[in-house]
Write a structure and sequence with these properties.
The protein is an alpha+beta fold. It has 8 helices and 11 strands. The strands form 3 sheets. It has a 4-stranded antiparallel sheet with strand order 1-8-3-6. A hairpin with a 2-residue loop joins strand 10 and strand 11.
């Protein structure tokens, strides 16, 4: 099963079975409980992780104590791989949102594999490029877009994900609690709930606990593009 998950991890795309077995050989299996912190911002970077099951949030904490969720990682994705090339420290916190099972890859052993495998080197470059693009997009959204636009875009992203999984794109399930989603989208839970309520009144969506029903996709896309609610 673990080799199958590694095959689906974008970081290891295109690698042969024997190469995946070498990668698996240096990994250690970790079971982490809900709210367990895997590493802290500034802590020495000893390696990176691949999620086998569960969810992990990556976040920063401002000097005022405000939490900003940068990314939520689930199977079969990797995280903290950028730390392999940084000056020895993790750039954020990582915490399990639910009980999770992970592979941990030690830095020194993995770098030795990279040196021997050109495809793995290319995959690392692609992975870090996605990492950069994701955070450039996050900065743009937090600095330039209204809260309603950020929420609308997130709902559209969830809708596209549902469609890829063969589910109805008109019905999405929130992937985080409202408090966590508010943190990820750069707002507070009260504003998040109030914005959802406004969208519901205007007939754009309907809300049922943690499920969102998209009633007017065109209006939702207009909101995502920057139109004020």
């Amino acid at each position: 099963m673990s080799i199958d998950i590694l095959k689906r991890c974008p970081l290891f795309a295109g690698l042969k079975e024997e190469e995946l077995k070498k990668i698996r050989a240096i990994a250690s299996l970790k079971q982490v409980g809900k709210k367990e912190v895997l590493f802290s911002d500034g802590e020495e970077a000893k390696g990176f992780y691949v999620v086998l099951s569960g969810k992990v949030k990556l976040y920063k904490i401002s000097p005022e104590g405000k939490e900003q969720i940068l990314h939520v990682v689930s199977s079969p994705d990797a995280f903290a791989e950028a730390a392999l090339f940084l000056e020895g420290s993790y750039p954020a916190f990582a915490e399990a949102l639910i009980d999770s099972q992970l592979f941990f890859f030690p830095k020194r052993d993995f770098i030795q594999l990279i040196e021997k495998n050109p495809q793995l080197s290319i995959n690392m470059i692609v992975s870090l490029s996605h990492f950069l693009r994701r955070f450039a997009s996050l900065i743009e959204e937090l600095s330039l877009k209204e809260v309603s636009s950020r929420i609308a875009k997130h709902l559209i992203d969830l809708s596209l994900k549902s469609a890829k999984e063969g589910k109805s794109p008109k019905e999405v399930e929130l992937d985080l609690s409202k408090t966590q989603l508010a943190s990820k989208l750069g707002t507070i839970s009260e504003t998040f709930s109030r914005t959802l309520a406004k969208m519901k009144v205007k007939g754009i969506i309907d809300v049922e606990k943690n499920k969102i029903f998209i009633l007017n996709r065109e209006a939702l896309e207009e909101l995502a593009s920057g139109l004020k609610i």
